[in-house]
Design goal:
The chain contains ten helices and 45 strands. With 936 residues, the protein is mainly β.
């Protein structure tokens, strides 16, 4: 990566040198009077009201259904990334699992069904979280708002626009040097404070823009360095169990039947769930409860360095050459501390119940005796680096135009190293999820006693001594890496002919895209030996969590007071091999050390050839376009699969490095013909009616197309990919009415209907796999993507915008989107309702804006056999700015001012109180950013 950065730095130096030469050659006379007469006067509009005017003008003049956010508007929103700045657009929602917007949904569709383009082209993207599978979503936390000129959200397609979106396409345009009025130096120095962390971090950005006197050569160089601490407090559960699981157990013994052996007496342990406990359990075998209750603490330091370069050169009045480069280096190192009662553990929990309460089909309360408690500390080094280079040349005269466009974009990301340590304890406890989730210990409280948690050191072998290799080792954690890459190369040519007729322009073009996404997973488990590797938590600098841990939560019992340890000290202990017994050697991470690592190593390549023809028309009050885009897609999914037998094993000692997996390639090829029609009728000078009909596609996520598989040996659940997936195919119909009832004002309504075929949903099924914990072939509940049938997304969006007198104004919008598959399943990330209200004030010195957003609950994914639903979520942001003079201004931005909780639960069909089945309840704190901005 250092080499790539030096390339961009060298390009910046070279272009500045060229700029000096261009300036020296600018002794040519000004263009003649006729040329001057044809030049359009550039009017620079600043401020909130100016930006809204520009956005409305663009929307009104467009021949498709679009919404726009301008650069000035991005700057006036309290946002640290572009996703948060565009949430004010009707029908646009974002997911904030870690407190910031990272995934964008449009008109009730899954983020994977929308495309994000940078200057009309794909920008490679990678995720940082180890459980994320590479997809087609864009990681918006990477893109700094400072590089943005405008953001256009296309809700209806045009033939020239890249295919791949069912909901909509976000096109982010960066600044162009020749659009500058003069030499520009701008930037900001900011300090971002998080009230949950109690500290803040600085950030700085700067932009230098220059063009020569002839306005035929210009350059923009911008740089930004941003640091931000993230802290997420919460309560989690890692799955669900049923009454039947408690009654009979799942291999390790049940509470009533199949009691485990008590080896001290050589007989099954006595039943401890008697009388009312036994009666209630037997009467509710289908009742569902959490398999664990966890006190979650997540901390992360996000660092983002952005360097961008834009060159624009017009050697002839009809020829425009543009070069854009973007280099983003981002760090996402994070540490997760989870301390939890594991009541649903097959071997140390399901047989330990002593009492329970069932309400509305949910086991809302339960007591356990000497059951498992776990402390997991996971230390991850994660980065995301993106480099994009784009070159475009356009010839444009009165009768025709042509352009050539080529570039490449590459991203690397994922988890470079995970160090995972696990400590165990056995205690008496009870949980209660009838209201706010809580956990209470009886007697010893291990959450306050670091010495009571210990790494599993295994048990004796034939010799009875841990000094001999026959010792049965315990599982103390793992060392894992899971890096990803994402790369696209593209080239396209476009032509256009202008005609003196109602069809005033014909355009056509060809494009080729070559894309490859890879993921590699490697690791090793820590085989701990008693007396050597069974360390206790008090060895790693234990300390209480901050005093405001779980502030904002109520009735949490013993969850709110717990200790943590130094994750870096634990990492040094594990990586340094201090846990090894004398007869052990430091294991080396490998893809073939575990079946899960093998199945999570894959590559998907995709080549796309496209051609389009589009006609733009205008006749009297009627205008618009129609066209067709023909696309051919070839994909190749490569991964390791078990082909020798159903009992494939990874590399084992004494096996001479031989494994029983083979590389398998699954190829797929398909062609799509995608017609579209956009009609605009200017009914009056203030009323615009629009209609759109189109056939569109969205390709499956790369991770879904892979042949990966993960399995949880304890919970006997898993998930996997499906390389045989077909693309989503949708027929989209949209109509809208826009009433521009006053200057810089609009009242608009849009109705949309998307009939999606080959809809991809995660479905759960039973599959037979080898359980790595015991070597047996067992039944696993596995979630995989499938073309589960068809789906419909339909709804209406209402928008209002008005600038009132005395500097006041208001934006407000509401979207209703009903999205369901034909089998009744909800579609991912679809909130049925969404509301945004954003009043503002602005005068010559002051500006202020408050934005309230709310979205109703939405389903996200299938995890461990559960449908996960995120409850309704609201947020309040505010921005205040004071103009000191023409060059300096002060800003104060508040984000997540409600410290809203992000609540997810398991939705189980037929269970009345299913929303009690908490899977995650999080708060990330209020964020306050003070900025000094300058512009010369």
């Amino acid at each position: 990566m250092k080499y790539q950065k030096s390339v961009l730095s060298a390009a910046i130096v070279a272009c500045l040198g060229f700029a000096v030469q261009a300036q020296a050659q600018n002794a040519t006379p000004a263009a003649d009077a006729d040329a001057d007469a044809t030049e359009l006067t550039t009017v620079t509009v600043v401020g909130i009201r100016g930006s809204l005017k520009q956005a409305l003008d663009t929307k009104r003049d467009a021949d498709a259904i679009i919404d726009v956010v301008t650069a000035e508007d991005v700057g006036k929103f309290p946002a640290t990334n572009v996703a948060e700045a565009i949430t004010i657009i009707p029908g646009v929602t974002i997911d904030k699992a870690f407190g910031q917007g990272e995934k964008v949904s449009i008109l009730g569709t899954d983020p994977a069904l929308n495309r994000t383009l940078l200057n009309g082209q794909t920008v490679a993207s990678a995720d940082w979280f180890i459980t994320d599978q590479p997809g087609r979503t864009f990681n918006y936390s990477l893109l700094a708002p400072q590089v943005v000129s405008k953001v256009e959200v296309y809700k209806s397609p045009e033939a020239w626009l890249d295919e791949g979106s069912v909901g909509g396409t976000v096109n982010i345009s960066t600044r162009k040097p020749l659009d500058l009025d003069r030499t520009t130096i701008s930037g900001a120095v900011s300090y971002l404070y998080n009230d949950r962390i109690g500290t803040g971090d600085p950030s700085v950005s700067a932009l230098l823009g220059w063009k020569n006197d002839a306005s035929n050569f210009g350059v923009i160089v911008s740089a930004q360095r941003s640091h931000e601490g993230i802290r997420r407090d919460g309560i989690e559960s890692y799955g669900t169990v049923t009454g039947e699981n408690y009654i009979n157990g799942r291999g390790g013994g049940g509470t009533l039947n199949n009691r485990p052996m008590d080896w001290s007496v050589g007989a099954p342990a006595p039943v401890i769930c008697v009388d009312d406990c036994a009666d209630t359990l037997l009467a509710n075998p289908d009742a569902v409860g959490p398999n664990s209750i966890s006190a979650h603490y997540f901390e992360q330091q996000r660092e983002r360095d952005t360097l961008s370069l834009a060159l624009q050169f017009k050697p002839h009045e009809n020829l425009d050459i543009e070069f854009n480069a973007l280099d983003v280096k981002a760090g996402y190192d994070n540490m997760s501390h989870s301390m939890f009662a594991f009541n649903g553990n097959d071997y140390n929990g399901l047989m330990k119940m002593t009492d329970l309460t069932v309400e509305g089909g949910v086991i809302t309360k339960a007591d356990f005796r000497n059951a498992l408690v776990v402390y997991d500390l996971i230390n991850r080094k994660a980065t995301v680096d993106t480099d994009s280079y784009d070159l475009k040349a356009t010839w444009n005269d009165e009768r025709w135009f042509a352009s050539v466009h080529a570039g490449t974009s590459k991203a690397t990301g994922g988890t470079g190293r995970q160090v995972y340590g696990e400590f165990l304890n056995w205690s008496d406890y009870s949980y209660d999820i009838s209201g706010d989730p809580s956990l209470t210990f009886s007697g010893n409280n291990p959450f306050l006693n670091p010495s009571s948690f210990q790494i599993d050191g295994g048990w004796a072998g034939a010799s009875g001594s841990p000094d001999n290799p026959d010792w049965n080792t315990g599982w103390g954690g793992n060392i894992v890496s899971k890096p990803t890459t994402d790369e696209e190369k593209y080239a396209q040519v476009d032509f256009g002919i202008r005609l003196d007729s109602p069809i005033y322009q014909l355009r056509f073009g060809l494009k080729r895209r070559e894309h490859e996404t890879t993921q590699t997973m490697a690791g090793v488990s820590l085989a701990a030996v008693a007396g050597y590797g069974n360390a206790t938590a008090d060895m790693f600098d234990p300390r209480p969590l901050p005093g405001n841990y779980l502030s904002g939560f109520s009735g949490t019992g013993d969850l709110s007071e717990r200790f943590t340890i130094d994750g870096w000290a634990l990492s040094d202990y594990i990586l340094g091999g201090e846990w090894l017994a004398p007869w052990q050697t430091m294991p080396q991470p490998s893809t073939f050390n575990h079946a899960d690592f093998v199945s999570n190593t894959w590559a998907v390549s995709e080549d796309v050839n496209a051609a389009y023809l589009q006609a733009d028309y205008s006749w009297d009050r009627l205008r618009g376009n129609f066209g067709v885009r023909v696309v051919e897609t070839e994909s190749d999914s490569v991964g390791w699969q078990c082909t020798a037998s159903a009992n494939c094993t990874a590399v084992a000692p004494g096996n001479n490095g031989v494994h029983t997996y083979e590389l398998v390639s699954v190829k797929k090829k398909y062609r799509d013909v995608l017609p579209n029609l956009n009609v605009v009728f200017d009914a009056t000078d203030t009323l615009v009616l629009r209609g759109s009909a189109a056939k569109v596609i969205a390709r499956p996520n790369y991770g879904d197309m892979s042949n990966y598989l993960w399995l949880g040996p304890q919970t006997r659940t898993g998930g996997g990919g499906n390389p045989d997936l077909d693309p989503y195919e949708s027929t989209n119909l949209d109509v809208s009415a826009e009433w521009y009832f006053a200057e810089d004002a609009i009242l608009a309504a849009t109705a949309f209907h998307k009939d999606v075929g080959s809809y991809i949903l995660y479905t759960t099924r039973t599959e037979q796999h080898r359980n790595e914990s015991n070597g047996q072939i067992e039944a696993f509940t596995v979630s995989r993507p499938e073309n589960a049938g068809s789906a419909k997304v339909q709804g209406v969006s209402l928008a209002f915008q008005k600038t009132f007198g005395a500097g006041f104004g208001l934006l407000a919008n509401y979207t209703y989107a009903d999205a369901k598959a034909d089998n009744g399943d909800h579609l991912p990330y679809n909130s049925k309702e969404q509301l945004n209200v954003s009043p503002f004030f602005e005068n010559e010195r002051w500006s202020a804006r408050v934005t309230y957003s709310w979205r109703s609950k939405y389903y996200t994914s299938v995890d461990r056999g559960n449908y996960l639903v995120t409850d309704d979520y609201d947020s309040l942001d505010a921005s205040f700015n004071f103009k000191i003079n023409d060059y300096l201004s002060l800003g104060l931005d508040g984000m997540n001012l409600l410290d809203s909780n992000y609540y997810t639960y398991a939705e189980v069909p037929g269970i009345e109180n299913t929303d009690k089945l908490v899977r995650g309840d999080y708060r990330t704190g209020r964020r306050i950013m003070a900025s000094l901005r300058f512009q010369f």
